[in-house]
Recover the amino acids of this structure.
């Protein structure tokens, strides 16, 4: 399994990949609706590709099994979406994509990886916490992260939390 930069020709596959990943939420009755909700469209993906902040984990046929897209915001690389095809989950691809984001943030001289996610979904905040992210209390949120959490709330996403990981040279 290889992680590489997303190419333009990968983009048409990514909305279906994200929808496949979201099927995981069917396990949770209160979030099952996410399995049928909107996913990022190709235009949104192309913006991350042109910023050089989108990566895919590919199989031996060079087909994308997972993607991570991010953007630079202040002194952080902010992860907008991390998705792994349902049948490929639990095999370490998510961690490999996080490793790639961490390396990219370090090379860019940034201080943090940040993201927002569900606090209580086993493969969301607890997974990121095991990776090394810390949950931020509401009083620790900067304006940018506050705005994201508020916008998510307005779109019906509750029980969200913001997390960050310090970029150090030692990891
Ligand atoms: C989150 C996601 C990207 C992780 O990718 P992945 O390739 O499955 O990740 P890994 O195999 O590296 O690790 C998965 C971790 O989640 C845990 N996990 C996965 N499904 C789980 C479940 N149903 N219950 C408990 N833990 C679960 C695994 O135990 C593993 O934890 P560990 O490595 O810390 O021991 C993937 O599960 C996914 O696409 N989920 C649906 C979309 C989503 O929630 N995206 C994140 C948005 S913030």
């Amino acid at each position: 399994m290889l992680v590489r930069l997303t190419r333009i020709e990968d983009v048409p596959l990514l909305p279906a990949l994200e929808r496949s990943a979201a099927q995981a939420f069917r396990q949770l009755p209160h979030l099952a609706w996410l399995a049928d909700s909107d996913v990022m469209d190709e235009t949104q993906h192309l913006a991350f590709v042109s910023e050089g902040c989108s990566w895919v984990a590919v199989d031996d046929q060079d087909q994308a099994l997972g993607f991570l897209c991010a953007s630079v915001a202040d002194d952080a690389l902010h992860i907008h979406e991390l998705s792994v095809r349902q049948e490929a989950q639990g095999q370490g691809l998510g961690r490999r994509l996080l490793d790639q984001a961490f390396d990219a943030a370090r090379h860019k001289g940034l201080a943090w990886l940040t993201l927002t996610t569900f606090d209580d979904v086993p493969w969301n905040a607890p997974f990121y916490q095991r990776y090394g992210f810390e949950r931020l209390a509401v009083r620790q949120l900067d304006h940018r992260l506050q705005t994201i959490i508020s916008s998510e709330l307005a779109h019906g996403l509750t029980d969200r939390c913001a997390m960050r990981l310090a970029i150090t040279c030692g990891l």
Notes: Residues 21-22, 24, 27, 82-84, 89-95, 117, 122-124, 127, 130 surround coenzyme A (CB under 6 Å). The chain has a mean pLDDT of 96. Residues 120 and 159 are 7 Å apart (CA to CA). The longest strand covers residues 64-73.
